[in-house]
Every structure is written in structure tokens, then in C-alpha cells.
Specification:
Length: about 475
């Protein structure tokens, strides 16, 4: 967690943008992303220079060209450590706007995700005074430590959410962490989020692996896979991709595959059966016209509804044996259309549906009051569902109104809190209990009564109910039992 002092530093940067004339939080974050990237390039160049000096070997790569440009201006002026020392606000403004940003756009020759997303970088900071102030403030923020870097960017993303306009891109971090812990990623997984937004799910998988599988960074093969093959994310919003790619970089992933794709409309034939793990919270809103939707998906489920098309896409992308934890609107669980029923039948009969976690309806406030659930399943192609585990989450640790204030100290929040919850604190944070019961879904959970917060339902009963997956269809209230 960030210290109060670091939070204050970020707040001051944010305030500087607002008072300097940039009020759109997405634009603020985008400009900060560019500046962080510029600073990061300078750090990488410095690291390489030091390595070269220590070893007496020439530098393996130069990010910034040596010498001067055609106008005779030194390329070294493009480095963060040099232009911040120019002393004259208008000179720095000119260097950053007229030279650094065009240089960023030209970096496309580098094959990294970051270079790709910087190709259409635009410099929109309006005045030399604002740039000078922001560079000064940003320079004072310590970026040596990977955890701090990641936490700083998460805190900035949180500001994007609280600003309200782009909250749809944010799945609460504690819900992401719960879904990651329930799927137990391994260092050999190949994960994808086909609606990745700011890359919350890939980042959380990376953090989980660092904590639970430290060998992922000490074993050369696993480290190579971690940096170049494990993480994949698609989105059709270039700003989000840029922000997501930077989020991954600041969390220590060198080259994730974060790329532009309209996941529902393009033919993903080359992606079929490619991934072992899907974590996603796809957009629910609206419907697509048949013409723009992938014909392969339409063969699985004939519908215009995006949430059903995404479910069909998940089944297509997963390898047999691959697993998924995805958020769906409640309508997917009980919708009565032919497409709804067929999709649920497919999950239950043709694959292995393991769990349904009903989330409290305030989880996505203040942006949406929609009721949602987490579906947990494994693609098999030959069935496997025997009992489906249901969990009725009533509290996620935060107030369920528009304010979403924490109900417990930070050490007691999330699925794996740093401090154990006291007797009466479970009713404020169900996440640790949900994770614990999930781990016992094949043994002790089988015997729980339908009046409990979690219970299992045999496949035969679900099929007899028309594959209805809503928890209330099977839950028994303690009053009716007496």
C-alpha cells in the first residue's frame, strides 16, 4: 500500500493538471503515462550505461541515438534526466513537445507492446509552466521499487474511477484478486483477457505468480515465458491499451501482448484453443448487429447480446482443460431466450461448470447498479459437471452505496487479508470465506444445507430446472425449512 506522503505527491500532480487546464481525468492519466514512459526509457538507458562501464563491454543497445540530429541538436537532450535540468520552462516545453513526442512515435521500430502503443502519442499539456511543475513533481516520486511503481499507477487508475466518467473500465481490485486466487494461475499458464481495459486481470496474475511461484523469475525458461508469452489482453480502445500496457510495464512485465482487437467482430480462428486461463469482466451493455459479429461465434450462439457472445468467445479461445473466471450480468444465469438457455446447457453438459458466485449488486457502483455473478468453469468438450457450487456473497468489504467506503481497516480487506477477520467481521467482508469454501467444494461443501451461504447442486437438478443458474432458484430460506 502507498504511504500517505506518496498519495499526497500523486494528488499534487493531479491537482496541478486540473488547475493547469486539463480537467478530463482520462487525458490527465494519458499525459502522465507518456511522461512515465519517457522517464522509464531514460532509466533503462542509464542501467545499460552502468552495465557497460562495469563490464568494460560496449552498450548492447542504445534507446537514444548517439551524437546529434540533422539540426545539430544532441539526442541526449531527449532524456528525462537532461531536459528536466534545462532550467528554462519554455526550452523544456519545446524539447518535449517538438522532439521527445515525435521520437516516441518513431519508437515503433522497437517490437515491444509499449512502443506500439506510443505510436499515436499526442502531447496536450498546454503551457510550459504546467509541464515544468508536473515534471518536477513526478521526478520527486520514487520509482526504483517495482511494488511502488505498480501501486502508484493503481492509485492513479483509482482516480480515473472516482472521477466517474470512465469507471466502466475498472473492476474493483479486490474482486479481481478473488477471481485470480480462485483460478490459481501457474507459471506455465497462457492467460488472456479479451476485454482488458487497463489490464487489471493480467497485472493481478503477475502479482499472484510473484508471490506464490517465485521460481517464475529465477528459472530462465519461466522468466522468458513470464515476460514474453504468459500475458495477453485485447481491447478496441487505444487509450486503454496504452494505459494497460504501461500498467504492465510498471508491474515488471517486459513485453506483454496487449493489442488492438474487437474481440467479437473479428474472426479469431488463429486464437482458437490457444489459452489455458481466461479472467475477464467484458462489457455487458448493448447488442451488436449480426453483420459485424464473428460468424464462428454466431454458430455457437445465435444472438446479438454482447454478454452471450463473450461467453461463446471464451469457450472458443480456451484450450481443452483451460479454465475461466468471468463476470456476467445476472441475466446470463436465468434469461429465458433460446440463446441464453443454449449457452447454459453447453456450459453444464458439454463442459465443466464448477461454480457460481453471486455478487452484491453494489459492487460496480457508482457506475452501474447491475447485479452480477462470477462464473467459474473449465473447457472440456466432453462434459464433467457433476455438482455446481453456489456462493451468496452479501458483502465485499466496502459499503454498497455510491461512496464505496471501506467497512474494515485495509489490513482486513480483500480475499487474503494481512490480518485475520474477527468473529463479527465476516459479515462485512465475505471474500476470505468465499475463497476458503471454494477450496473445499469437492469435500465438506457437498454436505452443506441449502440454507447456508454456500452449497452444491447436482447437475441433474440444474438440467431439470432448464439450466437456471440463479442462486435463488436453489437456496432455501431458513424460515421455510422450519
Amino acid at each position: 500500500m502507498l504511504t500517505g506522503e506518496l498519495r499526497n505527491q500523486i494528488d499534487r500532480i493531479w491537482d496541478a493538471f486540473w488547475s493547469g487546464g486539463i480537467a478530463n481525468p482520462l487525458e490527465v492519466l494519458e499525459q502522465l503515462t507518456y511522461l512515465l514512459f519517457i522517464r522509464r526509457l531514460d532509466e533503462l538507458e542509464t542501467l545499460e550505461e552502468r552495465r557497460s562501464q562495469r563490464s568494460g563491454q560496449p552498450m548492447r543497445r542504445h534507446i537514444f541515438p548517439e551524437g546529434a540530429d540533422p539540426q545539430g541538436r544532441p539526442w541526449s537532450e531527449l532524456r528525462w534526466s537532461r531536459f528536466k535540468e534545462l532550467g528554462d520552462p519554455s526550452s523544456m516545453f519545446q524539447v518535449v513537445g517538438e522532439r521527445v513526442f515525435p521520437f516516441l512515435r518513431e519508437l515503433g521500430g522497437e517490437e515491444s507492446a509499449y512502443a506500439t502503443h506510443m505510436r499515436d502519442a499526442r502531447f496536450t499539456i498546454p503551457t510550459p509552466a504546467l509541464l515544468t511543475k508536473v515534471v518536477e513533481l513526478l521526478d520527486a516520486v520514487p520509482m526504483e521499487d517495482r511494488d511502488t511503481k505498480g501501486d502508484i499507477y493503481e492509485y492513479m487508475l483509482g482516480k480515473l474511477a472516482t472521477a466517474g466518467t470512465n469507471g466502466q473500465f475498472r473492476t474493483p481490485r479486490h474482486i479481481i484478486e478473488l477471481m485470480v486466487a480462485m483460478t490459481e494461475p501457474t507459471p506455465r499458464d497462457v492467460m488472456v483477457d479479451p476485454a482488458c481495459g487497463t489490464c487489471g486481470f493480467p497485472v493481478a496474475v503477475g502479482e499472484y505468480l510473484r508471490e506464490h511461484h517465485p521460481e517464475v523469475l529465477s528459472d530462465p525458461d519461466l522468466r522468458e515465458h513470464f515476460n514474453h508469452g504468459l500475458f495477453h489482453g485485447f481491447d478496441f480502445d487505444n487509450t486503454m491499451l496504452r494505459i494497460g500496457a504501461m500498467n504492465m510495464l510498471l508491474h515488471g512485465v517486459e513485453n506483454p501482448d496487449v493489442s488492438y482487437r474487437d474481440s467479437l467482430s473479428e474472426d479469431s480462428a488463429s486464437e482458437e484453443n490457444k489459452y489455458t486461463l481466461i479472467l475477464a469482466n467484458p462489457p455487458f451493455a448493448g447488442s451488436l448487429d449480426y453483420e459485424s459479429t464473428s460468424a464462428r461465434l454466431q454458430r455457437v450462439v445465435k444472438t446479438k447480446k454482447t454478454e452471450l457472445l463473450f461467453m461463446a468467445l471464451f469457450l472458443q479461445l480456451l484450450r481443452p482443460g483451460g479454465r475461466a473466471a468471468v463476470i456476467v450480468p445476472d441475466g446470463v444465469l436465468f434469461g429465458s431466450s433460446k440463446a441464453h438457455k443454449e449457452l447454459r446447457r453447453t456450459l453444464v453438459e458439454d463442459h465443466f461448470l464448477e461454480g457460481v458466485v453471486s455478487l452484491p449488486s453494489g459492487v460496480f457502483r457508482p457506475y452501474a447498479g447491475v447485479s452480477t455473478a462470477i462464473l467459474l468453469f473449465t473447457k472440456t468438450g466432453r462434459g464433467g459437471t457433476d455438482q455446481v457450487w453456489f456462493y451468496d456473497m452479501t458483502a465485499d468489504g466496502w459499503s454498497l452505496d455510491d461512496k464505496r467506503n471501506p467497512l474494515l481497516p485495509l489490513e482486513k480487506l480483500g480475499p487474503t487479508p494481512k490480518e485475520a477477520l474477527g468473529e463479527n467481521e465476516h459479515e462485512k467482508n465475505n471474500l476470505p470465506d468465499c475463497l476458503d469454501r471454494w477450496r473445499h467444494r469437492k469435500d465438506s461443501e457437498r454436505g452443506r444445507a441449502r440454507t447456508a451461504q454456500s452449497f452444491c447442486v447436482p447437475k441433474e437438478e440444474i438440467s431439470a430446472q432448464g439450466y437456471d443458474l440463479s442462486l435463488n432458484r436453489y437456496k432455501v430460506s431458513s424460515d421455510t425449512e422450519n
